[in-house]
């Protein structure tokens, strides 16, 4: 299925699906309310991210979907639908299990990043994350003749102290490239529940900082066994 034509994204967007997961463009009128009803009581899900947490649906729609996602031609946000669950108000094929995006995408450089990953607590440590990331990798790195975008690089960035995210990336065949020290400032981070990098704050400043681990899965990784490894991971029964 093709996506709505009003998306402001630099690459073609369509629904991505296999037997267990569907990735469909996040639509505020359908997905925001069920998503926020869960994440509003789990602010820790935003602890390592530059955005969030958000207290209300309006806050999420205005300060994340509109201000961060929709204005950026390098970003598109997907709702993750778990097709192994019964139909729900969020989707006729299953339950809303989280969100995930392509971001910092560049048509000139044939690159993208998988980010803003939130898997709702009920669906963590299941097939959801591996299949959702796998579908995004397949679409990004597969050649156009096989239905993909033919990109050269897919990136993953996360906090250096977010060990679960680093492990998840490495398990999904991303290769660690390095660490960007003091990469982000979390303005008001303490009050927002952000996690500091553990280093001494500079010059008496109060805002937390994030060191960022950079990992990647590139076209040559994909062609040299990555395609098969990702498919095997997606095929596992959890």
Topology at a glance:
Layout: E1 16-17, E2 21-25, H1 28-39, H2 57-69, E3 76-82, E4 95-106, E5 111-119, H3 128-141, E6 153-159, H4 163-171, E7 175-186, H5 189-192, E8 208-218, H6 219-235
Parallel strand pairs: 5-6
Antiparallel strand pairs: 1-2, 2-3, 3-4, 4-5, 6-8, 7-8
Helix pairs in contact: 1-2, 3-6
Quaternary state, please? single chain
Q: What would the average pLDDT be, to the nearest integer?
A: 96
Question: Nearest-angstrom radius of gyration?
Answer: 17 Å
Helix vs. strand class: alpha+beta
Low-confidence stretches: none
Instruction: Tell me roughly what share of residues is in helical segments.
Output: 25-40%
Q: How large a portion of the residues is in β-strands, by DSSP E?
A: 25-35%
Distance between the termini: 27 Å
Short synopsis of the structure:
With 238 residues, the chain is an alpha+beta fold.
Features:
238 residues; eight-stranded mixed sheet; 6 helices; alpha+beta; single chain
Describe this structure in words.
The chain is an alpha+beta fold and 238 residues long. Helices cover 29% and strands 27% of the residues. It has six helices and eight strands, in the order E-E-H-H-E-E-E-H-E-H-E-H-E-H. It has an eight-stranded mixed beta sheet, with helices on both faces. Helix 1 (28-39) crosses helix 2 (57-69). The longest helix is centred in the last third of the chain and has 17 residues, at 219-235. The model has no long low-confidence stretch (mean pLDDT 96).
């Amino acid at each position: 299925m093709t996506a709505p034509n009003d998306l402001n994204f630099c690459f073609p967007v369509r629904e991505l699906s296999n037997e267990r997961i569907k990735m469909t463009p996040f639509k505020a009128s359908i997905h925001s309310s069920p998503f926020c009803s869960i994440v509003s009581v789990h602010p820790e899900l935003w602890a390592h991210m530059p955005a969030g947490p958000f207290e209300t649906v309006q806050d999420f729609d205005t300060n994340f979907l509109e201000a961060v996602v929709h204005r950026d031609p390098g970003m598109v946000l997907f709702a993750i639908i778990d097709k192994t669950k019964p139909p729900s108000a969020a989707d006729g094929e299953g339950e809303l299990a989280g969100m995930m995006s392509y971001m910092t995408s560049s048509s000139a450089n044939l690159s993208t990043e998988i980010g803003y990953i939130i898997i709702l607590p009920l669906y963590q440590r299941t097939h959801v994350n591996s299949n959702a990331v796998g579908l995004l990798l397949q679409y990004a790195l597969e050649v156009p003749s096989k239905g993909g975008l033919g990109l050269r690089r897919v990136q993953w960035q996360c906090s250096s102290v977010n060990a679960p995210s680093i492990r998840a990336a490495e398990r999904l065949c991303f290769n660690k490239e390095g660490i960007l020290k003091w990469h982000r400032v979390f303005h008001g981070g303490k009050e927002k529940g952000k996690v500091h990098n553990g280093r001494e704050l500079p010059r008496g400043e109060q805002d937390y900082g994030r060191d960022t681990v950079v990992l990647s899965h590139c076209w040559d990784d994909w062609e040299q066994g990555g395609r098969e490894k990702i498919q095997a991971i997606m095929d596992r029964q959890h």
